[in-house]
Amino acid sequence: MTGRRPARGAPRAGFVLVEALATLAIGAFVVAGLAGLITVVIRLGDRTAADLERRETIGRAVAGLEREIRGMSRGRFAGERHGDFLFAGGSDRLLFTLDRPDATGLLATAAVAYRAGVVEDRAVLLRTEAPVRPDLDDARTLVFPAPVRLYQGDLRVAFAYFAAQADGSGEVLTDDWTKPGKLPAAIRIALTDRAGTLVDSVRVPILVDAEPGCAVEGKGFCSLADQQRQGEGAAPQGEPGARPNRNRNGPAAARVR
Question: Can you tell me the distance from the alpha carbon of 19 to that of 24, in angstroms, rounded to the nearest whole number?
Fold first, then answer.
C-alpha cells in the first residue's frame, strides 16, 4: 500500500514563522522599554536642569546679598535717636545702609531692605532701597519704591544674627536683632526646603570701620567705647579710662567682625 509522505520542509517552515513572530514581539517589548527609559531620562534631565537653574538663581541672589552685607556702612539716625544704627533684622527681613558715590562723586547713604517670604506658594526674595536724608530720625519715613524680585523658587530664605558675648566667650545666634545701638557680629543666611529642613547656610561677617569719634576720646560719639564701658564698668566717654578697642591696624582702624 502506497501513500504520500508529508513534505519535510513544512514543520520547519512553521517553526521559523513562530521564531520570527517571537523575535518581533521581543523586539517590540525592547523598543517600548527603551522608549520608556529614554522618556524617564529626558524628564530627569529636564528636572535636573531646572533644579540647577533654580540653584544658580538663588546662588546669585545670596551672593549679591552677601556682597552688600560686607559693604554695610554705619548709618545712624539723627535727632533723639542719635547713636542708634539704621539697622533692623528679623528672620524674614533685613534693613541696613550702604554708602555710594552719587552723580557728583560725593558719598550718599542709601537704606537697603530685603524681604523673604512666600507668594503663591513659592518662596521669594525681594530687594528695594531708598535714599537716606541726613536728618532721618525714623525708618518709617523712608520712601521705598516697589521691590525687585531677586528669586522665586522652592528654597526659602531666612536670616539670623550672631551677637558677640560681652565677656568675649563666644557668640549667640538670634532670629531677631533688638539692640539698636549695636550691630551684630555677623549675619547668617539660611536656605530651607518646604519641610523646613536646612539645605545650606552662610555666615557673613559685618566688616565696618569704626566711627571717626573713636579716633580721639571725647570728641565724638563712639559705640566701641560705649560697649567697652558697659562691659567693663569703665569711666564714661570723654573721661580718663574710656578708650575704644584697638587693633594692630592703628588706633582709629578698629573693626567689628
Answer: 9
Beta bridge partners of 177: 89
What is the residue whose three cell numbers read 539645605?
A: 199
Q: Tell me: the pLDDT tens digits for 57-90?
A: 888 889 999 999 999 998 999 888 888 999 999 9
Within the chain, residue ranges assigned H as helices are 9-70, 223-232
- Label residue 217 exposed, middle or buried (CB < 10 Å: 0-12, 13-18, 19+): middle
Burial class (CB in 10 A: 0-12, 13-18, 19+), 255: middle
Q: How far apart are the first and last CA of the chain?
A: 116
Task: Specify which residues 76 forms β-bridges with.
Answer: 85
Exposed, middle or buried, 202 (CB in 10 Å: 0-12/13-18/19+)?
Answer: middle
Grid cell locating 249:
591696624
Please give the pLDDT value at position 93. 96
- Measured between alpha carbons, how far is 197 from 91 in angstroms, rounded to an integer? 15
Closest Cα to residue 123, out of 199, 70, 205? 199
Spatial distance between the Cα atoms of 85 and 227, rounded to a whole number of angstroms: 14
pLDDT at 17 over 80: no
Among 192, 195, 194, which residue's Cα sits nearest to residue 157?
A: 192
Domain ranges of the chain: 65-209
Average pLDDT over all residues of the chain: 76
Residue given cell 528636572 in the structure block: 47
**Going by C-beta distance under 8 Å and a sequence separation of 6 or more, which residues neighbour residue 64?**
150
